[in-house]
Design a protein that fits this description.
The chain has about 375 residues and is mainly alpha-helical. It is about 60% helix and about 5% strand. It contains 18 helices and 4 strands. A two-stranded antiparallel sheet has the order 1-2. The mean pLDDT is about 85. The structure holds zinc ion.
Length: about 375
């Protein structure tokens, strides 16, 4: 079921935020103009007991990793004004992550395209390589390096269902670490742990969030998505439609954007819950037969209670499977659909059964 949080498992990467802060602070405070990348290495080798901790950390990394020196060189070429914009953006984005998702921010787009391009290169590298490099973990005193694979396994042992679609079992299929807010538009969030979501492969592959990043949007870690969306069912053509549960307001827009970005309409339209439909039909039918045909009980209001009870029991069984089985929200909504839409159909069926039984009793009496 949607709405399960596992972002805290990615918190192991929170030191990555400190790294980016250090890098930007160094670029801002640094007064030396380097001619080339190698000069940064010479600078890093010079030990100075007066160096503040963030300089010591940057020096350690710069000594070991040429790519870090290259990123430092790029950033040190920026003027103070530009650097301040980047620092402010970084601070704003990591502090106000949930506000951005809710569309409450107004200013996240204040860095120019060229700077975004540079940052994309720097942070893409940090995400792909540095996050798993032991020098990086050591310098930030973050314990032993944990591979992406280990994090995935850890999450999959607790959470089985894809938090984007509620449709795939991530514990048995190939999974990916997705950036909820795309790296192309938010490079500064590339190594921000709150932005990591473990998703099924079809979600990660088929969604073009880079282009479709509409804000405000629901987020599987911070919103109970079940509350804001609902399924509707068309029995004549056996199609499923996913909708927002709110008629207006910001939650409506957030839910609409979520449905669109995750491409849920298309992915759910043919997911008619056949086996649940069969189970419900069988339980209602057998209850009706048992009471009407065998016991001759015609009390209609009692029937309605029994009908509701059967639906309710099925819903409770489904709730027990939440977090273990896919498409629970779809099936819960289907139960409600049967309760509200099919109630009359079942009552007509009941009338028929009563009639049938009366005929049967009459014909038996005739023959006696
Ligand atoms: Zn998925």
């Amino acid at each position: 079921m949607w709405g399960i949080s596992h972002s805290r498992d990615f918190k192991v990467y929170s030191f990555a935020n400190n790294y980016s802060k250090d890098l930007l602070k160094w670029a801002y405070d640094n007064k030396i103009r380097f001619q080339d990348i190698d000069e940064i290495l010479d600078w890093a080798k010079k030990e100075n007991t007066n160096d503040p901790p963030y300089i010591l950390r940057i020096k350690k990394l710069a000594k070991k990793r040429r790519i870090v020196r290259s990123h430092m060189y790029t950033l040190h070429m920026y003027n103070k004004k530009k650097l301040m914009k980047v620092i402010n953006a970084q601070r704003y984005l990591s502090k106000n992550y949930t506000k951005i998702i809710k569309g409450k921010n107004k200013n996240y787009g204040f860095i120019d395209e060229e700077t975004i391009k540079d940052l994309r290169v720097i942070f893409k590298y940090a995400y792909n390589k540095l996050l798993y490099n032991e020098n990086f973990w050591e310098v930030y005193d973050a314990g032993s390096p944990v591979s992406n694979e280990t994090i995935r396994r850890r999450i999959c042992s607790k959470i089985k269902i894809c938090p984007y679609c509620d449709k795939s079992d991530i514990s048995s299929s190939e999974v990916n670490v997705d950036h909820f807010l795309p790296q192309s538009k938010f490079p500064l969030l590339s190594i921000h742990w709150k932005n990591f979501v473990l998703a099924c492969k079809p979600c990660n592959d088929s969604l073009n969030k880079g282009e479709l990043c509409h804000l405000p949007v629901l987020h599987p870690f911070f919103d109970e998505i079940n509350k804001y969306i609902k399924f509707e069912f068309k029995s004549e053509c056996k199609t499923v439609n996913i909708q927002t549960a709110y008629k207006k307001g910001v939650y409506r827009s957030r839910a609409e954007n979520f449905i669109e970005v995750m491409n849920l309409k298309e992915r759910y339209i043919r997911l008619w819950p056949n086996s649940l439909e069969k189970t419900l039909t069988q339980s209602i039918n057998s209850a009706f037969h048992k009471h009407v045909l065998y016991k001759g009980d015609y009390n209609k209001s009692k029937w309605e209670r029994l009908f509701n009870q059967i639906i309710q029991e099925n819903k409770i069984d489904l709730m027990d499977e939440a977090g273990q089985e896919t498409q629970i929200k779809l099936r819960l909504d289907f139960c409600e659909h049967v309760r509200s839409n099919d109630n009359n159909l079942w009552l007509q069926h009941l009338e028929k059964l009563i009639h049938k039984r009366r005929e049967l009793v009459a014909s038996i009496n005739e023959h006696l």
